[in-house]
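Reminder to self: tokens first, then the designed residues, so the page reads top to bottom the way the pipeline ran.
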């Protein structure tokens, strides 16, 4: 009896099916413009409306197209950029309250919440990668 993996059979209990690779469309110059804005100005107050107006989109249109092309929303990408900058500042020994203000948060509480969500997501991604490694995938 052979136990080869088959595509048409559900995985054993407790194991997730491997996600299919997603073909993403090429981003338009306007979407790239928004992404560069976020990367350059993450410490500024960037609302969805401000980002959309910057590139000639409505907020809904920007959110939808950004997510299709980049796999995340502009707001989530902004938070990710802020968290990368916070990690860098933390490695330099900066105080958390200072980091919050330097990366664009006017509320320390909001910063802490985003840090906790970011850390949980990072650990979950690392756990998935570790699980795949253990399972030989």
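Designed residues (137 positions):
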């Amino acid at each position: 009896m052979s136990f080869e993996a088959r595509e048409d059979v559900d995985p054993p209990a407790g194991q997730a099916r491997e996600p299919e690779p997603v073909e993403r469309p090429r981003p338009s110059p306007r979407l790239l413009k928004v992404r560069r804005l976020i990367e350059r100005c993450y410490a500024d107050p960037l609302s969805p409306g401000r980002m959309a107006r910057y590139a000639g989109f409505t907020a809904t249109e920007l959110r939808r197209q950004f997510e299709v092309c980049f796999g995340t929303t502009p707001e989530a990408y902004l938070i990710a950029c802020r968290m990368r900058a916070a990690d860098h500042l933390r490695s330099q020994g900066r105080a958390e309250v200072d980091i919050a203000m330097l990366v664009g948060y006017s509320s320390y509480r909001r910063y802490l919440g985003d840090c906790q969500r970011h850390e949980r997501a990072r650990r979950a991604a690392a756990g998935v990668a570790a699980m795949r490694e253990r399972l030989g995938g």
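The chain has six helices and no strands.
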